[in-house]
Design brief:
The structure is a single chain. By secondary structure, the protein is an alpha+beta fold. The protein has helices spanning about 10-25, 35-45, 70-75, 90, 110-120, 135-140, 145-165, 175-185, 250-270, 275-290, and strands at about 30-35, 50-55, 60-65, 80-85, 100-105, 125-130, 190-195, 200, 220-225, 230, 235, 240-245, 300, 310-315, 325-330, 330-335, 340, 345-350, 355. The chain has 2 domains: about 5-140, Creatine Amidinohydrolase, Chain A, domain 1; about 145-355, Creatine Amidinohydrolase (Alpha-Beta Complex), CATH 3.90.230. Helix content is about 35%, strand content about 25%. The strands form 6 sheets. It has a 6-stranded mixed beta sheet with strand order 4-3-2-1-5-6, covered by helices on one side. It has a 3-stranded antiparallel beta sheet with strand order 7-10-11.
Length: about 375
């Protein structure tokens, strides 16, 4: 595994902050209040569960509580850490922090209660401007430091998948395998799962987001396993469908179509195309094989600090795909009462196409 030169971290974050400040100035904002913990970690490195960040043209402050004083001092190097003993709104309205006249507020990640309380405590001295998706354009393009972490997250999940599929048998439940995934992720160095693992066999595999149950696996059924982990803040996401014993001809045929559709998505993804165009390319292929109505979700989604972020690869995906964007390609076909098939890789966009972070086999594995 490639090691990260920690001396690169500060320049990388400084560059990200400079881009944010440039956009703020283009919108005539004097300051910006950040409430999304994922954005805060991306911009400052702080990984705690309680924080607000204030960015101005001259200085930045990270507000947290006493529990995280030592942690914040060790993680944050582009903002001054403030322990908000009286709570963030009270600290901010104290007058010690020059916000200027125009204050941007991250409105897509704040409760109505906190927003109204904050506006009230500013006493009308500032003009508060709601900001929606303000940071997406920066977070979608990954730095090499981020990609190193995402590759490691993907590697961990692949190692775990290889281990857990050998445990599947008629005496094991979906919950058994899901629990083993979570255990093995942490054992191999992940922070946590990037989402609750999906393990669904038989007719339950036709539910795209089935929760693992106490159902035992049965011979002759397909099993969908959707899983990912977080490594140093960055997520992985992958899905494979396996068979326990011999499955029906119909199931094998559907598996073949999904496998070919996923390969088409990988081959078709190019820098400069709209996300919706990639979705349409794969959707038309599945529709031509008679299963268009059974592919009801988008082709994929961005991955980073959050396992679901921009760009959305769907019919409504408006973003243009660019180099160093990271997203999934995950077509699926779901036949209620019978079975479902999904195959998913997380990919990185390069100058001539995408590269998968996963190398796990896509041949139908029969256990």
């Amino acid at each position: 595994m490639q090691l990260i030169d920690m001396k690169q971290i500060t320049p990388y974050r400084k560059k990200a902050l400079d881009r944010v400040l440039t956009k703020m100035m283009s919108r005539a904002l004097d300051s910006c209040i950040v409430t999304d913990l994922s954005v805060i970690r991306w911009l400052t490195g702080f990984s705690g569960s309680s924080a607000r960040l204030v960015v101005t043209r001259e200085k930045s402050w990270l507000f947290t509580d006493f529990r995280y004083k030592e942690q914040a001092d060790g993680e944050v190097d582009i903002a001054e850490v403030v322990i908000a003993g009286d709570g963030f709104p009270a600290e901010l309205s104290s007058g010690r922090y020059p916000l200027g006249e125009a204050v941007g507020l991250q409105s897509d990640n704040i409760t109505w209660h906190e927003a109204t309380r904050l506006i009230e405590q500013l006493h009308g001295k500032q003009r508060v401007i709601p900001l929606d998706s303000f940071f997406d354009e920066f977070r979608m393009i990954k730095h090499e430091i981020e990609l190193v972490k995402m590759r490691r997250a993907a590697e961990i999940s692949e190692l775990v998948l290889a281990e857990v599929i050998t445990m599947i048998s008629p005496s094991v439940t979906e919950l058994d395998i899901a629990a083993e995934i979570s255990f093995q992720h942490k054992k191999l160095g992940a922070d946590k799962d990037s989402f609750d693992p999906i393990v669904a066999g038989g007719s339950r595999s036709a539910m795209p987001h089935a929760r693992p149950s106490r159902a035992l696996f049965k011979s002759g059924e397909l099993i969908v396993i959707d899983m990912g982990c977080v490594y140093e803040g960055y997520a992985s996401d992958m899905t494979r469908t396996v068979a326990l014993g011999t499955v029906s001809t119909e199931a094998r045929n559907v598996y073949r179509i999904v496998k070919e559709a996923q390969a088409l998505g990988l081959a078709s993804a190019k820098s400069g195309m709209k996300a919706s165009e990639l979705d349409d390319e794969v959707r038309r292929f599945i529709d031509a094989h008679g299963y268009g109505d059974e592919f009801g979700h988008g082709l994929g989604h961005g991955v980073g600090f959050d396992v679901h972020e921009e760009p959305r690869i769907s019919r409504k995906g408006e973003h243009v795909l660019q180099e160093n964007m990271v997203f999934t390609i995950e077509p699926g076909i779901y036949l209620p009462g019978k079975f479902g098939v999904r195959i998913e890789d997380t990919v990185v966009m390069g100058p001539h196409g995408v590269t998968s972070l996963q190398g796990f086999s896509k041949e139908l594995i029969v256990l």
